[in-house]
Records
---
Amino acid sequence: MAGAFDFAPAIALLPFGSFLVALFLGQYMPKRGALAGIIATVGSLLLSAWVALTVAGGETYNEPVYTFVAMGENPIQFGLLLDQLSALMLVIVSLIAVLVHVFSLGYMNDEGETGLPRYYGELGLFTASMLAFVMSSNLLMAFMFFELVGLCSYLLIGFWFRRDGPPSAAKKAFLVTRFGDYFFLIGVVAVFATFGTAQFAGEESFPHLAELALSGEGQVTTMFGLGAEAWFTVVGLLILGGVMGKSAQFPFHTWLPDAMEGPTPVSALIHAATMVAAGVYLVARIYGFYALLPTALAVIALVGGFTALFAATMGVVKREIKQVLAYSTISQYGYIMLALGGGGYVAGVFHLTTHAVFKALLFLGAGSVIIAMHHNENMWDMGGLKDKMPVTYYAFLSGSLALAGIVPFSGFWSKDEVLYETLVHGIGTDGGLGVVLLLAYAMGLIAVFFTGFYTFRMVLLTFHGKPRSDTARNPHGVHWNVKGPLAVLGVLAATVGAINLVPVHALVGSVPEFLHDWLYYGPEMLNGHHYHELITAGEFGGMSAGELPGLGETGTLFASAGISLTVALAGSALAIALYRGDSPVEHTDRLGSAKTVLFNNYYQDEYQVWLAQGLTMNVARAADKFDQGVVDGVVNGVSSVSLFGGSRVRRIQTGIVSNYATLLTLGLVALLVGIGLMGGWF
Amino acid sequence: MLVELLLAACLVGAVVTFVAPDRVAGKLALGISLLPLVGALYMYATFDGSGNALFGGATMFGENVAWLDLAGYQLSYHTGLDGLSLPLVVLSTVLIPLAILSAWTPIQSRQSQFYGLVLLMEASLIGVFSALDFFVWFVFWEAVLIPMYFLIGVWGGPRRKYAAIKFFVYTNVASLVMFIGFMTLVFALGDSVSSFGLPAVTQAIAAGNLGNVAGVAGSTIALVSFVLMFFGFAVKVPIVPLHTWLPDAHVEAPTPVSVLLAGVLLKMGTYALLRFNFTMLPGVAQDLAVFIALLGAASVIYGALLALAQQDLKRIVAYSSVSSMGYVILGLVAYTQYGLGGATFQMVAHGLISGLMFMCVGVVYNTTHTRMVGDMSGLASRMPYTVGALIAGAFAYMGLPLMAGFAGEFFIFRGSFASTVLPNNGMALITGVAMFGIVIVAGYLLFAMQRTLFGEFFSATEYDVREAAVHDVAPLFVLVLLIIALGTAPGIFFEMIWNASQPILDNVQSGGEAAVESLATVLGGVR
Amino acid sequence: MVPIEYYMVLSAAVFCIGVFGILTRRNALMFLMSVELMLNAANINLVAFSFQNGNLTGQVFSLFTMALAAAEVAVGIGIILVLYRNFDDVDVTKATTMRW
């Protein structure tokens, strides 16, 4: 009997089909291809759910479906790896994709946009690439679909190509992520050179081979004279380059705020479930490899913690609603990285899940507000929308509470677990790794304050107070196709935290930790339990869980939760204190010179633009001058010399017969003398 | 025998087209050029050769007829296809009809002569890729130049004479140097060969028959002739710093000719490098690997930087060809299965991709009459199909997965990263540096696309910009489909390439080693 | 019998006179005469060596040379006539149109 796994390729092929249908036939269809996309993604969602149910029954799947290169000892194959992690992600991605498609009916069709077949086609391809990426069974396949995800985000960010902004933003997004992918591609090639395979799972998978090599049971070819661990760390960090590019981690985060130039539903898809999620998902996917490398883990944690804080501070001063959300995305993915680096595999996946839900919600909510505001995104022109659009308001509020990490909304549970895992591993681990983890934890904790602040600043400015512009007084109405997705996500954002109520479980043992159990009982070598063993093993990760002095394990758990909740509440309270009332005023001037720095995003764009244009372009121009002047100059010089020489030598041809006769005679004499000398006559 | 039929079809077709009236020449030439295409596809479908032609593998579709006896050397008319040459023959026969189709719009004078010359060139190209005797090969090799010279010099842009003469003289001098190099090699083999057949020469060298001539050691002769031949072929590829004829030729050549120049003619250089230098003299190649790899990496990075500085769309694509061919050199010198195979695969892939890019630029030029980046913007709203194909081509150039460029580049990277021809993983380091090309290529193509295709519509020239005719756009989409097909199923060609490159590596493992040893002593400190 | 050296000296002398004439004269007729002198110097050599070796081939060759010289004079005079018609002069240094 054909099971769910036999239909799994269709999860990605259905949206791909909708890409073709919408692109080529969309203009003849009602809703311009949206229906094809919705049908396809609903189909993907149902199949994903079926796969997830089958996985829940204890079966997993790791089989090749297509042979890319059949030759050689290790043929390159595209396969499907369906386990707990990918099944979860498939459900998330296809759910968000369905909702984004439905929302697009309101955001694009009802607003009378042109080029919709192209829009829905690209949306379908985007979804298909991401789903295929999620199911990838090896690193090369993952890289390929990773790139296709990048292509689709380029196309969608630049959807409104007639304006100047979107094409520029699209170009930047592709270039910056491409820079990260450069390292990733070296990493892929290095994995092939080192292990001969790039499989994620099974006995012949590269994480497993690396594990064997490090424990002295296997042999691999390391390069550049490095030891196994050092070389694996280099490879891991190279792959991490791609992750940081796609997941917009410092210093590759600059493309993401600009990417807000794309249509808002696309932003929701990019931020919640596809492009940006792809990066951290990859780390989770090959966590068995990273778990062996404490240095790589430390780098991941540090980058994550720093990005979380860094991006949150920038979100504090932004005026446009989507800009705030953009920086919050960067910051939240920083948390996920922090969790993964800090040994909290489950915490990272948990936050990835909850963030997908509440960030999609926030973006779609912002989209609803933007429709209402006639595409004005400035929060200082809004205000008072609470009463005009209650569905949007309550859904958005639910998402905001989750983002800020207020109990009992989903974000609280996951963020708390992220910080808790980092904290205990930081305390318990000796040496530099522990210090780094504690440092990353501290940055993550401070970022919680800023998160609460910018979230409630955004909510208050958008929905509360008195309307500050004419459009805010008479907002455009929104239809069911906008409210529906918001309602679904609003409920989920409030409740999805229930899948892993760690503190409650500690108190009442009968409350299960679904996600923890789900991920801990995955296939051999791909489950959280195995990762935990690797991380805590002295020969590999070398981490161990500690506890706050005098509190015990449970005490530490609650102390950590209490601290982060307090900080989040403090941040939120400050925002409410500053921006409540009918007509709030800007307080950014109080920041003094810091305000300028924050508004300019710490001048990150400036130096990157300088690197791209100031430096590289000038080098290129110099190279061009060199090429035209010196290299081509030499070529043309050879021809000039020949021509010049010819023009001189030809002057012998005077046309006077006597001169020719003279030359003849001289030649004869020279010949005679020469022969004489050779023959020894003299 | 099929190869000869193809040649005959092209040659007879060329004569017929020459005498046909201008009015029908384009359609006639298209019809005639479909014959070799059908023939090549039939050959592809029925190909079951094995091994490498130069190592006595089973070749197909060729002939071997004794021709002349010259000073103790038997010259034969010897042709045949193996897994390395068949993909390139297919590439040539695919690109020529498309190029002819794309010439219908821009070529408005002396059509019958134009299409006749194109068909003449097709015959020479098929000959170059199928000849297995040096003299036959050399005749075809040189014969390619003649139609090319006229195609650039007669139908080209304002500086066509300069470009045509530069192209002709540069490549012809290179051919001379290469000729001397090969002859040196043959004469150093002494009595062990009695023909100029490429298989005979290859196998004689592999058997270690390279003897002393006039007191000069065989290994030194191998080195000298390697360098001479490398120079000769490097001009054709072109490898930095011998590349400056290329942008001039491309800018002046009419679009269909650019398509053939970038799509097929450059591959003659890499194909010859593979056949001659890297197959016949693997020992020298490995001794000089560090220089060759650095030249390849330099071509990649330097070519990409030059492309970044250009404003003319055709120059951008021309320089990026230099960059892409650098990868091929890197793959060849790696001496791994993926490296050699990837390099050959990349030849085909780049042929299709650069052909597509030049065609797109050509369509844009036919419509706007300018190629300067600053002279136009927002073309996407006026000519969506052309722009769609252009975007597809640009991403193929950037190595987007599931398109042919990625497959070729990935194979090369995989092969050269793991290569052991240099000590201390030197190849991995050079490969890592060269791979930065994928970032720069994205940079210049994205910048150029943003400025020309997107934004408000604007054109500095006074022409009615609208979507081009069907026969202009159709070849673009044919190429896009081929690129995607080759990118999703690289086995189409990679399998036969793989099998045909295996003997080269076997030779390196066995016979090649001896040559390496002796040369290493001669070269002393080169490594 | 006259030693061969005497013939050689005579031949060399005649040849040198011819060369001298070609190098110094500008009149085309003098040029032609000088060329004839050089030809005859060669003839002297041919005949002398033929006599020395007792082989008639050289003398036969000198007969050929004479016939050739006659033909050459005919062509040469013709050229000189054309030269005069085109340049109004028989000065060889005036006719310099065939230069670079």
Note: Residues 47 and 59 of chain C are 5 Å apart (CA to CA).
---
Amino acid sequence: MGIHFRKSRGIMQDFAHSFSLAFQLLWRFDPALGEIVFLSLRVTFAAVLIACVIGLPIGAALAILRFPGRGLFVVLFNTLMGLPPVVVGLLVYMLLSNAGPLGVLQLLYTPGAMIIAQAVLVTPIIVALTQQVLSDLNAEYADTFRSMVVPWHKAAVTLLWDARYALLTVVLAGFGRAIAEVGAVIIVGGNINHVTRVMTTAIALETSKGDLALALALGLVLLMIALAVNAAVMAVRASARRMAYA
Amino acid sequence: MLTRFFSASAAAVLALGVVATAPALADDDRFIIVQSTTSTQNSGLLDAILPQFKDKSGIEVRVVAVGTGQALKNARNGDGDVLLVHAKPAEEKFVADGFGVKRSDVMYNDFVIIGPKSDPAGIKGLSDAPLALRKIADSKAPFASRGDDSGTHKKERALWKMAEVDIGEASGSWYRETGSGMGATLNAAAGMGAYTMSDRATWIAFKNKGELAILTEGDDRLFNQYGVILVNPEKHAAVKKDDGQAFIDWLIGAEGQKAIAAYQVDGQQLFFPNATKETN
């Protein structure tokens, strides 16, 4: 990180020190840190985008359609919300390995592999929570849809649109899961400096070097970034609401 | 008006996503992937010498630093062009099994036995590693083992065998397998006041030493040899044979050996080059 301090400290000094270190890292805008932060956001935004493109329609379909085995799917997606990241990392590694079926894509140890792994982690969250949010709304709208003979995909668009503010929270839940996980990206990305090193893998690396203050400082920076993203989304939501009711 | 606002922002988000993903998928840089061990990375050695190789050759070296066991496994799957690890018998088996082209010595350092300064097992100053381990076992003082089939773990198990201590039986009591890398294991040892074994390079560069210190060192049996192997392109067509070989030639050649010798932390040399031209 380009910042070095005196060597031996106790745990409590480390703890106090990490706060000032975190602010210094942000204040100086350390370029090495900037690169890592940018990659973290790039990977997570792309993964959440992919998860939404796949997850929102599936969640809506599960909320509206009635078909045999639907309950099974709902339980399945709810269960998959608890997928251990390290297992996802292992599965994606086995797929993308040169010895695996998708080895020809040469995606292992690239940000692309990390995006895939995080998208796999986040999609079930988007599906399960979207299904929950839209089921409640669908119960309200069901009579109208029936009386107007609305086809299901049009009903889905209506529900997704009308629930857009609640769905923002769903997307943020997915974002939080992806930006904070380390188990999957460290396996498929390899934590390669300047290529696949993100905030969480950098934290793991500094911990293994015994630099606990720097590791915790990076954790605080990550928390502040997550705070900024959440605040930005909430601000957009609030101003959109004001416009809607103006 | 509102619809337009939302479609505009949706388009912006989409565009952002595409922009964000595109450079991730198209990568034309000239690079190789080296599967290596945590000690070469955590000690800072690779960060110090790899830029010198890149300046000379234009080849970027991307390092995946894992335990030697996992590095061998990943390379077996063809996920890497070069292996730089430290477990000679396992490396020779890797080549004999046809997964590697040839193994060359690169450098060495040594392992050290580390423990709390209070030293309840009384091993301070010993230069007989198996004897030190036997004393730790007799005192039942906690010992943190890597437990991850890494090069260090393989060496540690060999030393327990020489000490005639059955660690399988002690596992879970005083013998604690962390199943993690060297740094995490040192953190655990610092946390519970345990003995452990580390390569000297990782120990010197480690920052959370706490109450731990080197207690036993200088036994020939603590020798730690690093080797480099080109992954066999005949097994995996994706292996970048020429660029990988160029890196190996540099590493075991005069320039690489000099760069290794020049790397110091706190005035101490961490790795000692010992490549020979007629490699085995």
Note: The longest helix of chain A spans residues 111-148.
